[in-house]
Amino acid sequence: MSWRRIVKHLIGVKNIKIKSVKLNENSGDSSSSIYIYVDLYKKDKGKCTYCSKKASGYDIATVDRKWRCTDVDGIPIYLVYTIRRVNCPEHGIVVESVPWALPDSRFCKNLEMTVTFLAANMNKAAIAKFIGIDWATVGNIISRVKKTLEPDVNIKYNNLVHIGIDETSYKKGHNYITTVVNLDNSTVIWAHPGHDKKVLSSFFDCLSPDQLASIETVSCDGARWITYCINKYLTPSVRCIDPYHVVTWANGALDEVRKTAYKTAKKTFQEERKKQIKDEGKPKRGRPKKGSTRAVDGSKKILNSRFALWKNPDNLTNNQEEKIALIKVTDKKLYRAYLLKEKLRLIFKLDDIEDVKEELRKWLSWSQRCRIPSFVKLNKAIKENYDSIIATKKHHISNAKVEALNGKIKQIVYRSRGFRNIYNLIDSVLFFCGGFKIALPNR
After folding, report:
1. Per-position DSSP letters for 389-400, written without gaps between them
2. Over 50: is that where the pLDDT of 439 sits?
3. Is 60 exceeded by the pLDDT of residue 50?
4. Above 70 in pLDDT, residue 158?
5. Alpha carbon distance 294, 273 (integer Å)
6. Most buried among 19, 29, 137, 172, by the most CB within 10 A?
7. For residue 269, what are the domain limits?
8. Measured between alpha carbons, how far is 160 from 150 in angstroms, rounded to an integer?
9. 301 within domain boundaries
């Protein structure tokens, strides 16, 4: 086997001519580089870098261009080729295509696939140090690989049946991106910075009338901007509000009652404390003597009962069960709010749709006359979204896959240690959550 054939296997490119190989040793330090001078066959020269079609030559280059290959034992390897520009009828004046690199890239394909594989498991700072490239270059490489593996983004919009729409935060929660998920294969098919009806409308504008007609259900929360876009572009009956969000609304209403109960209990404790000090004097530091009494701060029990009120009764610890029992005796209003939340949660556990409708009707009647403002407000919200809630149980649609992918997106942001370019983040989300298979070179 000739040394030229070995070099071709080493860099992962076969249809080229190896002219020479030079070792560049730096006298100032121990670092060195290998430069491989190559040439293309006549049939591969003069092609457009974007469409790979033959084009007429525009000029002759006089400067060599180099591309970084995968290192060997920590030694950087570069491909050197005298490239020229061509005049493509479709794309204009561009550089000619080379088989070892993607368009607009100074890295070989094998190196970019390696960086993309590492980016799925490591942070960008570690990758930049390991490969020897700039931190921001990692995001640009991911974007290039994603565009190469998915040249036509409209293909994934075909045959959409069940989709999920949600927003997730990034950059310390001050910014949001809107994501659309194909619930049938659990992949993110669209993402864009922002979360309003203008942003979501840009997604539906990308779809053809046939693609819009194929959508049967849309799983989402009760956001008005999502409802507006569904009513504008789709049949309103396809909107489904996940039970998770409805129970979250109930937990929010319950927490409002808890906060009010805490303030009331704390005020009562302070009044009792002042009265006790006035009658018995200020107590000394340390343990109280036997037979002495001290006001008990019941507000602390209520304050620390937030998680006990949110959790399912089956998952309560002994301490949390005692807190619920104390609330049942001391605060009837808070306990009634707790029962309302639990009743609503159990309704969505039912399988028969008629049972759900009947139990939900009873719950709406109860919450209407419960004399708790936060649950009366929740009653109105559920009545407004009644059809969407029932549609969720009818079609057995869940937003769990969307929420799981939101968690994966947050892991991407955290693992990458941030993004300078928001569109590099979008490409990373679409790539790592889009069902693409990343393979290492020669594996």
Report:
1. HHHHHHHT--SH
2. yes
3. yes
4. yes
5. 8
6. 137
7. 243-280+296-395
8. 18
9. yes
Domain stops at, among 45, 78, 101: 101
Does residue 28 surpass a pLDDT of 50?
no
Residue 412 in any domain: the answer is: no
Q: Which of 431, 432, 411, 429 is nearest to 179 (CA)?
A: 429
Q: What is the mean pLDDT of residues 339-346?
A: 91
CA triple 382-387-390, angle to 5 deg? 90
Residue 242 sits at φ, ψ, to 5 deg, of: -65, 140
How many Å apart are CA 260 and CA 262, to the nearest integer?
A: 5
Q: Which residues contact 385 (CB under 8 A, 6 or more apart)?
A: 222, 241
Name the token pair of 12.
């992962």
Contact 201, 232 (CB under 8 A): yes
**Helix, strand counts (H, E) of the chain:** 17, 12
| Beta-bridge partner residues of 32 | 25
Residue 2 burial (CB count, 10 A): 8
- Beta strand segments in 152-259, E: 162-170, 175-182, 187-193, 217-220, 239-241
Which of 52, 73, 101 lies at the terminal end of a domain, its last residue?
Answer: 101
Task: Express each pLDDT in 345-372 by its tens digit.
Answer: 999 888 888 998 999 999 999 999 988 9
Note whether 112 and 141 are within 8 A (CB). yes
The greatest distance separating any two alpha carbons of the chain, rounded to the nearest whole angstrom, comes to 105
Note the pLDDT of residue 288: 61
Mapped onto helix, strand or coil, the DSSP state of residue 63 is: coil
Give which of 163, 266, 179, 272 is closest to 217, Cα–Cα.
Answer: 163
Q: Assess if residue 407 is contained within a domain.
A: no
The model's pTM is 0.76
Write the DSSP symbol of residue 286.
S
Residues 235-254: pLDDT tens digits? Answer: 877 888 888 888 889 999 99
* Rounded (5°) CA angle 29-125-422: 135
106: Cβ–Cβ under 8 A, 6 or more apart, which residues?
65, 66, 67, 68
> Is residue 385 helix, strand or coil?
coil
Please check the confidence at residue 298 and state whether its pLDDT lies above 60.
Answer: no
d(CA 340, CA 255): 12
- CA 204 vs CA 107, 159, 190, 212, 236: distances in Å: 36, 14, 10, 8, 14
Tokens linked to 427: 């490409």
**Does some domain include residue 431?**
no
The residue type at 279: D
